[in-house]
Amino acid sequence: MVSERGGAVDIVGVSHGFDTGSILSVLDDVTISARPGEFVALLGPSGSGKSTLLRLVAGLDRPLVGEVYLDGAPIRGPHWTRGLVFQDPTLLPWRTVRQNVGLGPQARGRGAVDVDKIDAALELVGLADFGGVLPAQLSGGMAQRAALARALVNEPRVLLFDEPLGRLDSLTRRDLQGELLRLWRDRGFTALLVTHDVDEAIVLADRIVLLSPRPARVLEEVSVDFDRPRDPTDPRFVELRRAIFDVIDNSAVER
Ligand SMILES: Nc1ncnc2c1ncn2[C@@H]1O[C@H](COP(=O)(O)OP(=O)(O)O)[C@@H](O)[C@H]1O
Ligand SMILES: [Mg+2]
User: Fold this and answer.
1) Which atom of ligand 1 is the closest one to the Cα of 49?
2) Which of 50, 63, 205, 215 has its CA 20 to 30 A from that of 27?
3) pLDDT, tens digit (0-9, with 9 covering 90-100), for 220-246
4) Is residue 199 domain-shared with residue 246, that is, in the same domain?
5) Contacts with 153 (C-beta within 8 Å, 6 or more apart), sequence order
């Protein structure tokens, strides 16, 4: 799926680590590309380096080796064209939902957003009637919708999702997976979704990049080339799930 709104992301030869007394190697020569408007899942075990990788694409950190590009230009810092949605909604508890949604762009130096845009974003995620309430009055799923609205109000070209549905119950999670796909289709942004959930990756993505345990390197990339909505009991789904676990198991044997 090619889109005019979505940005092209290129992660090229990225290695990264942290000085924790000794050097902790976290990313090992990672190269991943996402075409404009593509939905790419980055699938790897906990602690493999997925969040670190996403932070580099967000521009919150610079890679020690290699480079990350948006539409061919090196990413040098955070920018409103690249939105980030975390596992926790990180809403300010003393601000209303509407104020929280309006705060993202201001914090990124884009100036105040008009209320119409904020309300449009809230409408988009099904929170039209909740702009005036405080985050404490929202359920977990609603809070995550608000976090989504906060990212969407910027009309980002790339949305980076760091296990955004990880803390939700399975029914709410299923609901929001559908919502994510609808927004992605409507808005045309490029989506990079970090997850450790194989089924979630298959439900959502055009392409799945399998990452090894830390230090993360790309084990394999698989296309998910059957239509959405994807039913976990569909034989193609079952087969792909098995193929993915095979790659993961074989990589464990290699080590
Ligand atoms: N700022 C940091 N300083 C030191 N170690 C870090 C830092 N950020 C992450 N790590 C370490 O890097 C590894 C990968 O972390 P992370 O990218 O959060 O993995 P994932 O998101 O796949 O669970 C972990 O061992 C974590 O402890
Ligand atoms: Mg993480």
Assistant:
1) 17
2) 205
3) 999 999 999 999 999 999 999 999 999
4) yes
5) 101, 102, 104, 105, 113, 117, 118, 120, 121
